[in-house]
Amino acid sequence: MTANQNSVYKKTVLDSGLRIVTEKIPFARSTALGIWIDVGSRNETREKNGITHFIEHMLFKGTRSRNAQAIALSLEALGGSLNAFTSREQTCFHALVLDKHLELAVDVLSDILSNSTISAQNIQREKSVVIEEIREVDETPSDRIHELFSDHFWRGQPLGWPIMGSAKNVVAFDRPTIRKFMKENYLAGRVVVAATGSISHNKLVRLIRDKLNFRPGNNSHYLDARDPQGFSSQFVKNGSSQTHICLGFPGIGYSDPARIPLLALNNYLGGGMSSVLFQRIREERGMAYTVFTFPDFYRDCGVFGAYLATDRKYLHEAVETMLKEFRKLKRTRLPKMKMERIKDQLKGGLVLGMESTSSRMNRLGRQELLMGRFFSVKQALNAIGKLTPDHIIETARRILDPDNITITALGSATKKDLSKVDWSLL
Questions:
Q1: Is 50 helix (H, G, I), strand (E, B) or coil?
Q2: Which of 49, 133, 189, 213 could join 165 via S-S bond, C-beta 3.0 to 4.6 A?
Q3: What is the Cα–Cα distance from 397 to 395, expressed in whole angstroms?
Q4: 224 located within any domain
Q5: pLDDT tens, position by position, 355-387
Q6: Whole-model pTM?
Q7: Same-domain status, 58 and 198
Q8: Which of 56, 147, 325, 368 is catalytic?
Q9: Which pLDDT does position 1 carry in this prediction?
Q10: Is 259 a domain residue?
Q11: For 276-298, what is each residue's pLDDT tens digit?
């Protein structure tokens, strides 16, 4: 199984500290370009929670030479795309274009990052937009449960705060506050430019040198996260008869050697319709419509969680079904046939994902920010191929700790419902 294994990786570090990484893909016509800043909601104070996401919005509202409509049309008019996202640890401004439009993509991204006006009028208008975005999450239980779970899991640490912040915080943001935050965090040493597809590394380096300006420095800072200890449960009412529940354990960091075994464990437990929890809880017993597991990897820590939405009367049975499957993984080696299927699923998912230059760009940018090095698709496939049942057992025993469980429920369930659960099953 291959995935353009003849791709060519290159890296350049400018005198300012800004890093440029590229992966040239043979036969690709598209170029995916991302400008990554090593700042996210994890870097905020409680009073400024949400400001990184708000800045992401504001940079599309106009520059000295382009208004918001001109920015939106710049690449879309040529069949390309321009967008951005904010996570807990990074912000990324990205474009997808035909290779012949690389210079324009660099120009537009550099313009919004270096020359945004961030006018008071646009700030006021965008506050309403972001507040509506926050309300949409608050009114969507399947989204809100994950916000509640993150804050509960991290016991109030910044890593668990909502990326969009609160409406109260957003209302208070003003131009001086935004400018000050950017001045402190949008520094060259915290920036990675990642590009994949049909790309000339040397040409991109020249373009970035000419067009993209960040103040020198690397004022990188974040508080170390403390893994939550002990059993903790939280119940939030929302007037619904259905209960949404997240159950989670302390996980591992992005560069931890156990990351691929944990991805395999996730794939087996709740990675799709063929996963054991989906089959046991939905297909065999009809207790839930949606059930899945999820690993979140940060630079120094992580979360491994499970989610389902079910009627209150099924809650304790559904949770016990999860616990039983967790225990099996800790005690019993997976048969060779299942192990090979898991490896094939991981390899297939990786290769299919790498058909997209945008997916490759995301992978390339995160690797540079979180590991400072490139981990090729070929290396990843080789690592998956070496997985054994012992790796799964070791990872399950390390992660699925019965003494460190965090549970958040949103809906009609109460503490009494979970008191019926036999936690010794884990």
A1: coil
A2: 49
A3: 5
A4: no
A5: 999 999 999 999 999 999 999 999 999 999 999
A6: 0.94
A7: yes
A8: 56
A9: 35
A10: yes
A11: 999 999 999 999 999 999 999 99
